[in-house]
Amino acid sequence: QVQLVESGGGLVQPGGSLRLSCAASGSIFSISVMGWYRQAPGKQREFVATITSGGSINYTDSVKGRFTISRDNAKHTVYLQMNSLKPEDTAVYYCNAYIRETPLRGTIGYWGQGTQVTVSS
């Protein structure tokens, strides 16, 4: 049973920083893409950033220059360093990972339970 567990959310003032972590555990043969998505109240879930096992990275335009995604392949963990936070960054942040549990199985997408990030003075 594969699980993704996020941590690091919280309340921060505008201009502040937070670092999110997401660790995958269970039966894992390989992980291809890991990423972060977010969902604000009353809005659809949206893409924030992704990183491949080879280190290729993509960001949504609104976070470029402020957020940094990284991963530790040995620990099956992805991070999101968020700087210069704005009130519009307030959302539940979800971790996503495409995982192959055995060499013979296909890749399956998994989601974490979400962690709340609130940017407010």
Query: How many E strands?
Result: 11
Average of pLDDT: 97
Kindly, what is the distance between the CA atoms of the first and last residues, rounded to a whole number of angstroms? Answer: 40 Å
Beta-strand residue percentage: over 45%
Instruction: Report the total helices.
Output: 0
Form type: elongated
Q: What percent of residues adopt helix (DSSP H or I)?
A: under 10%
Largest sheet: 7 strands, mixed
Sequence stretches where pLDDT stays below 50 over 5 or more residues: none
N-to-C series of helices and strands:
EEEEEEEEEEE
Radius of gyration: 14 Å
Structural class: mainly beta
List the helices and strands and how they pair.
Blueprint: E1 3-7, E2 10-12, E3 18-25, E4 30-39, E5 46-51, E6 57-59, E7 67-72, E8 77-82, E9 91-100, E10 108-111, E11 115-119
Parallel strand pairs: 2-11
Antiparallel strand pairs: 1-3, 3-8, 4-5, 4-9, 5-6, 7-8, 9-10, 9-11
Q: Which features characterize this protein?
A:
four-stranded antiparallel beta sheet; mainly beta; seven-stranded mixed beta sheet; 121 residues; 11 strands
Task: Describe the overall structure.
The protein is an all-beta fold. It has strands at 3-7, 10-12, 18-25, 30-39, 46-51, 57-59, 67-72, 77-82, 91-100, 108-111, 115-119. The strands form two sheets. Strands 2, 4, 5, 6, 9, 10 and 11 form a seven-stranded mixed sheet that branches. It has a four-stranded antiparallel sheet with strand order 1-3-8-7, with no helix packed on it. Strand 4 (30-39) and strand 5 form a beta hairpin. The protein is elongated, with a radius of gyration of 14 Å. The chain starts with a strand and ends with a strand.
